[in-house]
Structures are given as C-alpha cells and as structure tokens.
Amino acid sequence: MDNSKRTVVVTGFGPFGEHRVNASWVAVQELKKLGLGGEVDLHVSEVPVEYQTVQSLVPTLLKKYHPLLVVHVGVSGMATTVTLEKCGRNHGYKGLDNSSFCPDSQCCIVGGPDCINSVIDMESVCKRVTASGLGVAVSVSKDAGRYLCDFTYYTSLYLSRGRSAFVHVPPLGKPYSGEDLGRALQAIIQKMLELLDQAEEKIHCQQHFH
C-alpha cells in the first residue's frame, strides 16, 4: 500500500421507495469517474437501505481501508440544493427499512451521545465551494432526517471519532444531473480534505512549540 496516498471512502445508497434509481449512488459513480486527484485513493461502496446492513458495513469499511475521511451520500426528496449535514443523531429511528425492519431500541448506538458533530466545519466547506463558482447550490443542515441517512451518519461518526461527513443530494433532474452532482461531490470532498490538512498542520505546529 502506498502510504503517501490518503484514502477516502465514499458511499451512496441503493434504491428505496419511489427512488428506483438512487441519485446518491449515481452521483458517487460519477465522482469515481472524476476521481479526487492522484494523491487520493478513492473507494466507493453502495449501501443497501437496511439498518442491519449499515451496522455491519460501516465498521467493515473502516477496518478495510483505514480512511482519512468517510463521506456518505444520500438522496432527499425535499432537497433542492446539495446539503452538507453537520451532525448525526442517535434516537428516533421509527421508519421501516427495505426489509421492513427498524431497531427495537429506535437508536443507533445504545448509550451513545444524543448527537455527534463531524470534525469538519461544514459552514466553511459550504462557503469555499460556493466561492469556487461550481454552478451547484450548496447549503448546510443540522438534521439528516432520522432515517437510514442519519442512522448511517451517526454510526460512522461514532466509529470514526467524527472523521465522517454526510451529503444529501436532490433527486436526479431536480435540478441537477448525475454529472453535476458528481462534480459537486468532487469539489466538496476536496475542500474537506484541505480543511483536514490545515487542522493537522495546526496540531503539528502546536506540538512543536510546546
């Protein structure tokens, strides 16, 4: 393994409900074509809309790839912008998944904190991407919706100690194409990596002076 490369894992969801083609997985496949530049090892994975699969898949991806960052992408029928989610929530999972299951506890991690924030400053990512003139509107949200998206995000934040992000995309053609969404994901993740680099540099500088 080339250790100079940084690894990023990006997931999209499979079909569910009226989303026979899930815009999130289309967007992630477009991102895979574009890549994140030569310095970054990008791995993508499609996630079925099932609580139990998410519970086993997220730790598997973390163990297999040891990523610097995990980015989950999901579709929201209500979204009109590409939306950066700040936090995942532990409680309130009552919606049944594709296998008509929901957790008895209605939570992600029994005894886990109510809410976990990403280590990435989503407002900053939003500002930077907007300033880059991408032609895709980006916004920030504090509520990932208490379904599989939120459940996946919380689980990932918990296991990665906050080194995760979640991006909601609108359905295809409302108004963006799969290519547009892929370009947006590329720009967003590149900005996230820049912010992580700056945070690392800060930590190194502080260690130097003490």
From TrEMBL:
<feature type="active site">
    <location>
        <position position="85"/>
    </location>
</feature>
<comment type="function">
    <text>Removes 5-oxoproline from various penultimate amino acid residues except L-proline.</text>
</comment>
<dbReference type="InterPro" id="IPR036440">
    <property type="entry name" value="Peptidase_C15-like_sf"/>
</dbReference>
<dbReference type="Pfam" id="PF01470">
    <property type="entry name" value="Peptidase_C15"/>
</dbReference>
<keyword id="KW-0963">Cytoplasm</keyword>
<comment type="subunit">
    <text>Monomer.</text>
</comment>
<dbReference type="GO" id="GO:0016920">
    <property type="term" value="F:pyroglutamyl-peptidase activity"/>
</dbReference>
<dbReference type="InterPro" id="IPR000816">
    <property type="entry name" value="Peptidase_C15"/>
</dbReference>
<dbReference type="InterPro" id="IPR016125">
    <property type="entry name" value="Peptidase_C15-like"/>
</dbReference>
<protein>
    <recommendedName>
        <fullName>Pyroglutamyl-peptidase I</fullName>
        <ecNumber>3.4.19.3</ecNumber>
    </recommendedName>
</protein>
<dbReference type="GO" id="GO:0005829">
    <property type="term" value="C:cytosol"/>
</dbReference>
<feature type="active site">
    <location>
        <position position="149"/>
    </location>
</feature>
<dbReference type="InterPro" id="IPR033694">
    <property type="entry name" value="PGPEP1_Cys_AS"/>
</dbReference>
<keyword id="KW-0645">Protease</keyword>
<dbReference type="GO" id="GO:0006508">
    <property type="term" value="P:proteolysis"/>
</dbReference>
<comment type="similarity">
    <text>Belongs to the peptidase C15 family.</text>
</comment>
<keyword id="KW-0788">Thiol protease</keyword>
<dbReference type="InterPro" id="IPR033693">
    <property type="entry name" value="PGPEP1_Glu_AS"/>
</dbReference>
<keyword id="KW-0378">Hydrolase</keyword>
